[in-house]
Amino acid sequence: MSGLSGATALPGQSPIGSAAARYLRACRRLPVDTTPVWFMRQAGRALPEYRAMRHRVSLEAAIADPALAAEITLLPVTRLGVDAAIVFADITTPLPGLGIRVQLVDGVGPVVEAPVRSAADLDRLAPAIDPGAFEPTAAAVRLVRDASPVPVIGFAGAPFTLACYLVEGAGARTEFPNLRRLMRREPATVERLLDRLADLAVGALRAQVEAGAAAVQLFDSWVGGLSPADYRRFVRPPMRRLLDGLGDLGVPVTVFGIGTAGLLGEIAATGGDVIGLDWRVDLGDGWQRVGEGRAVQGNLDPWLLLGPWPEIEAATRAILAAAGGRPGHIFNLGHGVHPETDPDVLRRLVDLVHEAGSRGAEPPNRTPKRT
Ligand code: CP3
What is the pLDDT of residues 281-328, one digit of tens each? Predict the structure, then answer.
């Protein structure tokens, strides 16, 4: 059962919900007591406790150890006061479920042992997905669910972004020449690969939700490199397959990518409950492109956090003003927390969002202000 304390009202008990419910309520565009906030990559690199742990344990070993992964997941909840926990794992974690070996190399990122660059390479993947690959992360979710005062977000890499790593093999970031060549010369192979990755993500996310994740996020970090025509041709079908595979779970789904300003209408038309906005688009403008019927998440420039507080505060207030009190805004950065970020600044930002955030009704019993 959930470890939510008795002090927190369940959604629906109050017209604006409680602190513990504000993230999920905002995903559903319900009124909230104040704007919920969490940060992509909140569990990792910027936290000194995390870095100290990483001197002793490899990233793979930390992800494979449910107790340690749960502990890391909870670090930002206690230290930063965020309104959601995101399970500690990586978008590459489920890949062994397709028989793909991948290493997370310090300073480089994921390195795939045998890149998939042809139909023959694709045929060498496991014919059936091994659900054992999802178990350590599901076990971590179970532990977090029992200990966390806030909802747990499960996540997976979206098919296109995972394909960037799989086809390039190493160092994929923005260009993906091998994937782009394959898209032009062997589109059917790419389509088949993306379908397999959609099925992998469905398996991984179903395991996380069954373990207690109350929402999920799909990281399609590199989708912004595509034209709208390629988005429709290559990305929409596997994303629909993925979203259909989660439909019966009833958990809100966030779809996030960077550099997506020109694709927001297409992305929203594909599906998902919450659309992530990066910092290159004004929140009001982005929300208009997404459409009023959908929640949005974002979108403070993560690089601003390396600068003076007054600029951070002004930009945060501008985002909240652009949201304008409409239900369905979840505050976040426009991409992940940079490792150089001072956790005390993140903490101060959480407090500012809670203080200045929009309220759906008159102020509830405010949580005591943290100092
Ligand atoms: O930081 C967290 O909140 C922990 C959970 C988490 C990790 N990866 C662990 C990790 C999450 C949410 C991810 C998602 C992820 N992984 C994405 C999507 C988000 C995004 O940034 O766009 C992507 C593209 C990856 C692939 C990946 N993993 C890269 C490119 C790298 C190397 C560069 C980097 O970000 O540091 C990784 C390694 C990785 N995964 C780290 C962490 C905490 C790096 C730190 C370490 O080695 O301990």
Answer: 999 999 999 998 999 999 999 999 999 999 999 999 999 999 999 999
Neighbours of 282 (CB within 10 A): 15
Question: Residue type at 73?
Answer: T
Question: pLDDT by residue (tens digit) across 152-203?
Answer: 999 999 999 999 999 999 866 668 999 999 999 999 999 999 999 999 999 9
What's the topology of domain 19-356? Answer: TIM Barrel (3.20.20)
The closest residue, in CA terms, to atom 31 on ligand 1 is 109
Long-range contacts of 164-169 (CB under 8 A, 24+ apart): 164/222, 165/91, 165/92, 165/102, 165/109, 165/110, 165/112, 166/95, 166/100, 166/112, 166/115, 166/116, 166/193, 166/197, 167/115, 167/116, 167/117, 167/193, 168/112, 168/115, 169/111, 169/112, 169/115
pTM summary value: 0.92
Neighbours of 341 (CB within 10 A): 23
Q: Whose CA is nearest to atom 11 of ligand 1?
A: 90
Give the whole-angstrom CA distance, residue 57 versus residue 3: 28
Ligand 1 site residues, Cβ closer than 6 angstroms:
41-45, 54, 59, 86, 88, 90-91, 104, 106, 109-110, 155, 219, 221, 336
Residue 90 CA, ligand 1 centroid: distance in Å: 6
Atom of ligand 1 minimally distant from the CA of 43: 3
The alpha carbon of 331 and the centre of ligand 1 are apart by a number of angstroms equal to 20
Check: CB of residue 276 under 8 Å from CB of residue 298. Answer: yes
Nearest CA to ligand 1 atom 43: 44
Low-confidence ranges of the chain (pLDDT < 70): 1-13, 171-174, 360-371
What phi and psi values does residue 144 have, to the nearest 5 degrees? Answer: -65, -45
